[in-house]
Specification:
This is M18 family aminopeptidase. The chain is of the alpha/beta class and 448 residues long. It has 2 domains: 292 residues, Aminopeptidase (3-Layer(aba) Sandwich); 134 residues, Roll (Aminopeptidase i, Domain 2), CATH 2.30.250.10. It has 11 helices and 20 strands. α5 crosses α10.
Length: 448
């Protein structure tokens, strides 16, 4: 693959389109699914009987928010294993509560709950819209579900003026229950009841799906998001600014690499929901999604164990780039720079699943495609985040390596990455998917 500017630019433009079309984990999964189906992947449903065949490509979803895509290679699975890449579809955000309507001083507001470890300050003074999944009863009395996306700005969280909080720039604390309450609308004088939120969702549903005979919204999972579109920024256009780079960037990279797989090896992409809140759900990495798939692919226990032994998972999740204003927050020898290549994430206490043999293989792949590579190790006196890597390693038993693209402002409403790094990781992922021969022999070397 040639790393020409045209190729990198095209890759990034497709990334921006994917980010903008994916305001929630549901929409991200829908975007991934649509691309895979358009590329010829056959959709599987977990409630059906399967007859998986070598040479074919498959995709399945769970909860509409998690996805597995699988290229069933021609090679012997017990000899070659499966090359797996994992990422997650969810991002920290604000989610609308079940009974959100609030009325204060003639203003209708919406109660929200913080999802995941969101950086709250950047949510103020933004033009926010809402999107998500609604469940409704149609006029025939049947339960149906649909994704909606309002797209236009409909709520905002205005800051308190500095004149009323003179110390705000010195020591600001944000109370998630009191301070992060979006402003929805102002009632006409004399009215004293806020509109029903579910009725507004019903109107939105009917607008997006005029053919659907919806009568009542029964429940919903609605998230707020910033309407400012993703962009290439910087004097020399070296950065990507967007919401949900953590971790839709990795989902997109894994997708693009999988689409280039030639079918000689068996390759798999899994993108799970709920990583930001611990992955403990039916569609999270702690759930049985991947294990269920492998059991149906390989029903016999001994064969499945042998295949897992030959397999490897690369868990892709963004890494903390060293911030030029706060270099002291990094270990002095392990501060990744933007546009300097993907990052191997290492933690002695297994908050990341990386081991030296997996890291060595990744470095070898980077050398083969002429991609620079970096390390991230947290300061010894600071805590360390985690990923789906250790979860899948412990649940499935597959050797796992944690890598990612360096970013700034992780968990902010708008994050920043380098324009080169996604392309770099895509090239390495492509080499990983195409790697021929036994991964175990490479990982274990002469010890074998």
């Amino acid at each position: 693959m040639s790393a020409s500017h045209t190729s990198v630019a095209s890759f990034n433009q497709q990334l921006l389109q994917f980010l903008e079309s994916s305001p929630t984990a549901y929409h991200a999964t829908g975007s991934l699914l649509a691309i895979l189906l358009d590329a010829g992947f056959e959709r599987l449903y977990e409630g059906d009987a399967w007859q998986l065949q070598p040479g074919k490509r498959y995709v399945l979803t769970r909860n509409d928010s998690s996805l597995i895509a699988f290229v069933y290679g021609a090679g012997n699975l017990t000899e070659q294993g499966i090359r797996m890449v994992g990422a997650h579809t969810d991002s920290p955000c604000l989610k609308v509560k079940p009974r959100p309507e609030l009325l204060r001083m003639g203003y209708a507001q919406l109660g929200v709950e913080v999802y995941g470890g969101a950086l709250l300050a950047p949510w103020f003074d933004r033009d926010l819209s809402m999107a998500g999944k609604v469940s409704f009863r149609n006029r025939s009395g049947k339960l149906q579900h649909a994704l909606i996306n309002v797209k236009k700005p409909v709520v905002t969280i205005p800051s308190l003026a500095i004149h009323l909080d003179r110390g705000v720039n010195d020591n600001r604390s944000i109370n998630a229950q009191r301070d992060i309450v979006p402003l929805w609308l102002q009632l006409p004088e004399g009215e004293d009841k806020a509109p029903a939120f579910r009725q507004q969702l019903l109107q939105q549903l009917q607008q997006e799906y005029p053919e659907v005979d919806a009568e009542e919204i029964l429940d919903y999972e609605i998230s707020l998001y910033d309407t400012q579109p993703p962009a290439i920024v910087g004097q020399r256009e070296q950065f990507i600014a967007s919401a949900r780079l953590d971790n839709l960037l990795s989902c997109f990279i894994g997708l693009q690499a999988l689409l280039q797989a030639d079918g000689s090896q068996s390759t798999l992409l899994i993108c799970t929901d709920h990583e930001e809140v611990g992955s403990a759900s039916c569609c999270g990495a702690k759930g049985p999604l991947l294990q269920n798939f492998l059991e149906r692919l390989l029903p016999e226990n001994e064969t499945r164990t042998r295949v897992i032994e030959q397999s490897m998972m690369i868990s892709a999740d963004n890494a903390h780039g060293i911030h030029p204003n706060f270099p002291d927050r990094h270990d002095e020898n392990h501060g990744p720079l933007l546009n300097r290549g993907p990052v191997i994430k290492i933690n002695a206490n297994q908050r990341y699943a990386s081991t030296s043999d997996g890291s060595a293989l990744f470095r070898l792949l980077c050398q083969q495609v002429d991609v620079p590579v970096q390390n991230f190790v947290a300061r010894t006196d600071m805590g360390c985040g985690s990923t789906i890597g250790p979860v899948i390693a412990s649940e499935v038993g597959v050797r796992t390596l944690d890598v990612g693209v360096p970013t700034f402002a992780m968990h902010s409403i708008r994050e920043l990455a380098g324009t080169q790094d996604g392309w770099y990781l895509y090239r390495v992922m492509g080499a990983f998917y195409a790697y021929s021969g036994s991964l175990t022999s490479q990982l274990l070397g002469e010890q074998r």
